[in-house]
Amino acid sequence: MLRGSTKTPTMAGFIIALLVATTPAFADLYSAGVAYQRHDYKAAFELFKELAELGQPQAQWNLAVLYARGEGVESSNIKAHAWASLAGRNGEPKGATLATELEPNLTPTGLKFSEEIQAQYSQSALNQRLLPRMFNDRDYQDRDPVKPFKPFVPSYPPGARMKGVQGEVFVEFTVAPDGHPRIPRILYAVPAGFFEPTVRESVLRSVYLPARLNGTPVSTSVNVFYNFVMSGVSVHDYGGLEQKVRDTKAKAEAGDPAAQMLYGMMVAGLPQLHQTYSQALPWFLKAAQAGAPYAQYQIGTGLLRGRGCQCEPGKGEVWLEKAAQADQPDAQVSLAEYLLKDPTNREAVAGATVWLERSVQRDNAAAKLYLAAILAADPEAEVRNPARALLLVDQLDRDYKLDPTTWEIRAAAHAAGGDFKAAEKAQSEALDDAKALGWDLAKLQERRASYGEHKPWTGNLLEF
Q: What pTM did the predictor assign?
């Protein structure tokens, strides 16, 4: 962040390291600092301003200094005072100091203008239009939570064990009403390429007690954080994890956005911590306000689903679009998933397809799965593209080899192309795999019957 008063324009070195790659294409504290160091004050101003408007106190302080110095923007003591005051109220003590220094230079009219800016970006105003209203120690307000029943613990990945590789994976999936997980989506894996298939297998072979809404089982999102260590062969051997949690929390409390994001993952995904998603959200929010797209994705999906906070889709779309515009692929997939809730809204379906195509360009496996499902079974014939659906799903064999959904997509694509023999065969493969996993088979059997009658099946293949 910027240091010094308006009379001593010095620049401290940035030590913020985000978990995601940072570029000046979107606003984060690191990118803004790099722009300032390069004397690109206009770019630094725009980046700090975007974060300041999200309520990030360091960005508000930096913005106040830029206004006071006239760097990247026309000098304005009024706006400097407004943003310094906001920074001070949000926990940045240098903001309060700068506001006190500037106040004697302002006329009563200038003070009034400053107060108007402060009112626009006050905590109450941000709460109204942007920030989540978090629950108190619970995941959802309207349902009983998902509970583990029979976790599946696979062997330590042989390739990683041979190379002495350890790592971490954060995964999101849906627990269907039958208690079986669907579509595990890897959100974070370090190092990449070693543990993802093992985590997907663990998820798909596990069994849960499903969430219940008024006593009825319902589909619900779940996160799990895996820590892979070499002291044993089980993915649930959490040797040394307690110390890592403590160290990460200390860094998060000191204001490191990367640690805030990682600690949020731990709170959300480690059952050993006995915490809820609502307790993870404040950490994700701090990182999101600092410009981390992955954290913005977490806030957006929480708001869309009413997970950990009140369900407020309008706010959720704002956060998801920020992350999606920064090319965060999980945000792009979640936006598409949200838009696909109403297949009769063709404008929304078209928008979902655009986001998925953009994520596919980044080689995101979940995007390929969702796009293939649309191209195989969309109700509108002009949208369907069976050949491309098959091409996309064939690229997912490594990532989704245990998932019956890939066979379901193949079956629907073959039927859409008129090859009902191939469709029946693929759907039978889906049924065999789903039976082995313990899934409810009713919808899969319905689709196989349709293909047996030489009728294509259309609709949302990924609705559980």
A: 0.85
